[in-house]
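Practice problem 4.
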C-alpha cells in the first residue's frame, strides 16, 4: 500500500496544476484502483462447529423385503413333528430340545437348564445321556409332566438300572395298546410311568406320589394317539401351533404354544387381538448372545397386519437387552428376529417376567 501511494504522488509531482489533463487524472485513478484491488482482504475467523454428543442407537428395525427366517433342516423338522404328533389335544404348550444340536453349541449348552425348561430333576439322570431330541410338555390342567424322546434308550435296561438303584418300579411291564409300559415311584418322591412307542421313541411321565394314576394316565394318553391320523387331527381339533413348526429355522431349543401370552415378556407384555399360536426357537450367536426367531399366528391377515406396529413397539420398548430387531409380515403370520442376551431370551422362552 505504501508503494502505491508513492506512485500516485510521483504522478502528481510531474505536472503543475495548470497543466493537469484528463489523461493524467485517469492515470492516477488507475493506479489507485489497482492498489485498492491489490490490498489483502482479511478473512473472518470461522466459528468452530460443536461436536454433537453421541446418543444411544435404537435397535435396527426392518419391516419388509428381508427373508431372515431360514428354512428348517428337513431331518430335524421330521424328528420334531414325529414327537409333537404323539401328544394328545390336552397340551397347548411344549418345549422341544434338540439334544445333539445343543451339545454342538458352547455357551448355550451351559446356559440351558433342562429342569427350568420342564424336565423333572428325578428323570434327568435317566434320559439325557443318550437322547437325540425330546419334547417337554405339561397338560393344560397342570397336573404332571410328559417327556417324549427319540434316541438310543433301552427302556427295559433303564428299568433294571432304576431298580438296582432302589427305585420302586415294577419289573414286569403292562401291555397297553401293544406297547410295554412300566410304572412305579422314585424314592417315595414322585410317581413315574414309562413306555415304548416304537421306532426308537419313548415316553416318560411324572405325577404326584399321592396319586400314581396321574403318571399312568399321561402315558396312556400318549399311547392312545393314533399316529396314522395324528397330523390331521392336530390341525383340525388340536394344537394349531403345528403349522408354525416349518416356519422356524432349526435350533437347539424351541417353544410352541396355542397362545401368545407365554412369550409376552419378550415384547413388553403386549396383547394381540386374534393371536392364536406362537413359536420361538433360540440359536447361539456368541458366548453371551442368542438369536431368537419368533412367529405369531393370527386368525386373519387383518389382525396380523394390525399387530405389526404393536409388536414393533413392544420389542423396541422391551426391558430385554435387544440389539437388533427385524420384522416381517407374511399373510396371517407375523415374524420377528431379535438378538439379545442369552439368559434373558431363555427366561422369555420359559415365560418368565
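Answer key:
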Amino acid at each position: 500500500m505504501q508503494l502505491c501511494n508513492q506512485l500516485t504522488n510521483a504522478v502528481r509531482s510531474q505536472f503543475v496544476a495548470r497543466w493537469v489533463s484528463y489523461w493524467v487524472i485517469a492515470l492516477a485513478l488507475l493506479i489507485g484502483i489497482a492498489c485498492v484491488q491489490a490490498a489483502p482482504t482479511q478473512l473472518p475467523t470461522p466459528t468452530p462447529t460443536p461436536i454433537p454428543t453421541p446418543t444411544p442407537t435404537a435397535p435396527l428395525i426392518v419391516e419388509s423385503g428381508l427373508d431372515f427366517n431360514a428354512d428348517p433342516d428337513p431331518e430335524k423338522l421330521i424328528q420334531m413333528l414325529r414327537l409333537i404328533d404323539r401328544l394328545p389335544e390336552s397340551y397347548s404348550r411344549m418345549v422341544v430340545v434338540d439334544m445333539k444340536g445343543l451339545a454342538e453349541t458352547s455357551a448355550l449348552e451351559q446356559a440351558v437348564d433342562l429342569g427350568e425348561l420342564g424336565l423333572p430333576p428325578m428323570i434327568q439322570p435317566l434320559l439325557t445321556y443318550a437322547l437325540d431330541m425330546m419334547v417337554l410338555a405339561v397338560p393344560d390342567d397342570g397336573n404332571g409332566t410328559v417327556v417324549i424322546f427319540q434316541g438310543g434308550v433301552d427302556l427295559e435296561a433303564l428299568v433294571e438300572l432304576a431298580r438296582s438303584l432302589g427305585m420302586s418300579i415294577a419289573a414286569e411291564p403292562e401291555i397297553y395298546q401293544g406297547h410295554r409300559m412300566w410304572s412305579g415311584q422314585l424314592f417315595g418322591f414322585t410317581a413315574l410311568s414309562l413306555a415304548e412307542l416304537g421306532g426308537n421313541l419313548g415316553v416318560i411321565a411324572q405325577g404326584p406320589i399321592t396319586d400314581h394314576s396321574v403318571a399312568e394316565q399321561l402315558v396312556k394318553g400318549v399311547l392312545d394317539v393314533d399316529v396314522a391320523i395324528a397330523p390331521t387331527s392336530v390341525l383340525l381339533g388340536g394344537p394349531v401351533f403345528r403349522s408354525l413348526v416349518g416356519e422356524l429355522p432349526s435350533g437347539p431349543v424351541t417353544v410352541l404354544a396355542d397362545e401368545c401370552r407365554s412369550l409376552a415378556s419378550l415384547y413388553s407384555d403386549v396383547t394381540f387381538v386374534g393371536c392364536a399360536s406362537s413359536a420361538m426357537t433360540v440359536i447361539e450367536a456368541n458366548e453371551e448372545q442368542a438369536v431368537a426367531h419368533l412367529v405369531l399366528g393370527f386368525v386373519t391377515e387383518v389382525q396380523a397386519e394390525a399387530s405389526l406396529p404393536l409388536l414393533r413397539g413392544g420389542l423396541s420398548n422391551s426391558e430385554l437387552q435387544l440389539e437388533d430387531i427385524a420384522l416381517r409380515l407374511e399373510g396371517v403370520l407375523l415374524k420377528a428376529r431379535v438378538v439379545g442376551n442369552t439368559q434373558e431370551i431363555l427366561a422369555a422362552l420359559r415365560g418368565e417376567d
